Amino acid sequence: xxxxxxxxxxxxxxxxxxxxxxxxxxxxxxxxxxxxxxxxxxxxxxxxxxxxxxxxxxxxxxxxxxxxxxxxxxxxxxxxxxxxxxxxxxxxxxxxxxxxxxxxxxxxxxxxxxxxxxxxxxxxxxxxxxxxxxxxxxxxxxxxxxxxxxxxxxxxxxxxxxxxxxxxxxxxxxxxxxxxxxx
Length: 183
Ligand SMILES: Cc1cc2nc3c(=O)[nH]c(=O)nc-3n(C[C@H](O)[C@H](O)[C@H](O)COP(=O)(O)O)c2cc1C
Prior knowledge:
The protein is of the alpha+beta class. Helices cover about 35% and strands about 20% of the residues. Helix 3 (about 55-65) packs antiparallel against helix 4 and helix 3 packs antiparallel against helix 6 (about 140-145). The longest helix is centred in the middle third of the chain and has 21 residues, at about 105-125.
């Protein structure tokens, strides 16, 4: 079986990520893969923000600032959430709500696929990732901190780094119930 098929079959998410994270050259390779996502109308509705070091702590501060009435335990948790990996790549969709031919859901899917290409490329380079979203993607304080325009949406926080310990083994979903062959 080809390397790419083996790689896709084996893909897993990795919640426990440590240094090192991809360097600039590796990131460029990952983004070159990301921008080859299928994209109706060639809108190129994606952009990416790479956070590491101090920028992760600052994102944590923005998470905390979004919940001013939270108790200290929750505030600490929010502050430390982005520190679960040495790098976060924020996938952003720049959405054209008025587009005549390409509905917003197709634009969101395109950025989702670009994000998945990032995951697969990172894995091929020897790194692990974990795609996370949650409440923080919608919070005004977080959006403002990341410089999102009104028409932009966070599609994922892609936590990225080196897998700590043994990587998980991918399980295979049985196909009989989900695939129908006709003709
Ligand atoms: C759009 C999207 C958002 C996700 N958000 C979260 C999240 O906020 N927290 C989480 O634990 N998993 C989230 N996941 C799921 C994980 O990234 C992962 O796919 C899941 O834990 C299953 O593991 P696997 O990818 O190894 O099969 C999200 C996945 C997608 C596609």
